[in-house]
Amino acid sequence: MQDSNLVNELREVNLSYLLLAQRMLRDDFSKGMYRLGLGKDVAGLLVELSTSQVLSLASSNSLICGFRLNDIALLGALTKDGMNGTLKQVHASMMLAQQEPDQVMQEVSQ
């Protein structure tokens, strides 16, 4: 039963991510690419997915999005006590911007 619940939750996260990604990319393609950490090719494919394709992709038993908090320096910057909220956001944004586009997608596919 737990496995079934886990799979259902993964599918919900996948669907939420895909819908959010499409909305961000449709609102402002360049900003969406930056915030999602995607390259132009992947972003272009995501924005063009039909509803049935989104549902099919979301129903995967694996998490299709990746978290960019796999860098110890970035995680440390976000949790450091000595910075106020604005400075934390700026520092984290700078570190995320240094990551290669599609780096997360490549790591997930390996």
From TrEMBL:
<dbReference type="InterPro" id="IPR023559">
    <property type="entry name" value="Flagellar_FlhD"/>
</dbReference>
<keyword id="KW-0805">Transcription regulation</keyword>
<keyword id="KW-0969">Cilium</keyword>
<protein>
    <recommendedName>
        <fullName>Flagellar transcriptional regulator FlhD</fullName>
    </recommendedName>
</protein>
<keyword id="KW-0963">Cytoplasm</keyword>
<keyword id="KW-0282">Flagellum</keyword>
<keyword id="KW-0010">Activator</keyword>
<keyword id="KW-0804">Transcription</keyword>
<keyword id="KW-1005">Bacterial flagellum biogenesis</keyword>
<comment type="similarity">
    <text>Belongs to the FlhD family.</text>
</comment>
<dbReference type="Pfam" id="PF05247">
    <property type="entry name" value="FlhD"/>
</dbReference>
<keyword id="KW-0966">Cell projection</keyword>
<keyword id="KW-0238">DNA-binding</keyword>
<dbReference type="InterPro" id="IPR036194">
    <property type="entry name" value="FlhD_sf"/>
</dbReference>
<keyword id="KW-1015">Disulfide bond</keyword>
<comment type="subunit">
    <text>Homodimer; disulfide-linked. Forms a heterohexamer composed of two FlhC and four FlhD subunits. Each FlhC binds a FlhD dimer, forming a heterotrimer, and a hexamer assembles by dimerization of two heterotrimers.</text>
</comment>
<comment type="function">
    <text>Functions in complex with FlhC as a master transcriptional regulator that regulates transcription of several flagellar and non-flagellar operons by binding to their promoter region. Activates expression of class 2 flagellar genes, including fliA, which is a flagellum-specific sigma factor that turns on the class 3 genes. Also regulates genes whose products function in a variety of physiological pathways.</text>
</comment>
